[in-house]
Amino acid sequence: MIDLTDPDDEVFDAETGWSAAPDHYVVDGKETWDVIRERMIDEGWGEYGLRAACRFLELKYELRRGLKGPAARDDRKASWYAAMRAHIETGSPDPRWYRTGKQ
Predict the structure, then answer these.
(1) Rg (alpha carbons) of the chain, rounded to whole number
(2) In a domain, 54, yes or no
(3) Is 99 a domain residue?
(4) Fewer CB within a 10 Å sphere, N or C end of the chain?
């Protein structure tokens, strides 16, 4: 798993878009993830639904590893979703902690 406290970790790799939310992941000034989270909670899915969504995407990137592009990119994406799931489950750091407005 990525080390969210290490500024030298791959979490800052611009290839993944992790160093900032790309424009196509921003809706009305909010990151898409935050909009999805709000809607899922409003629709009654709650934290369980968010954890399940993270696990689904984590498995997606593990299973397609290297089939659609570099395996390392899929590994980083799977790690990101694992970190977000851990954040939801345990309150560990949000994998977006280093972005403006997320501290």
Answers:
(1) 14
(2) yes
(3) no
(4) C
For residue 78, the enclosing domain spans 26-90
User: DSSP characters for 11-26?
Assistant: GG-GGGTTTS--GGGE
Q: How many domains does the chain have?
A: 1
pLDDT tens across 77-95, in order? 899 899 999 999 999 988 8
- Identify the H or E element spanning 54: helix 46-63
Is 53 within a domain? yes
pTM listed for this prediction: 0.75
d(CA 15, CA 85): 22
Query: Is 31 within the bounds of a domain?
Result: yes
pLDDT, tens digit, 9 for 90 and up, residues 18-51: 566 777 778 888 888 889 999 999 999 999 999 9
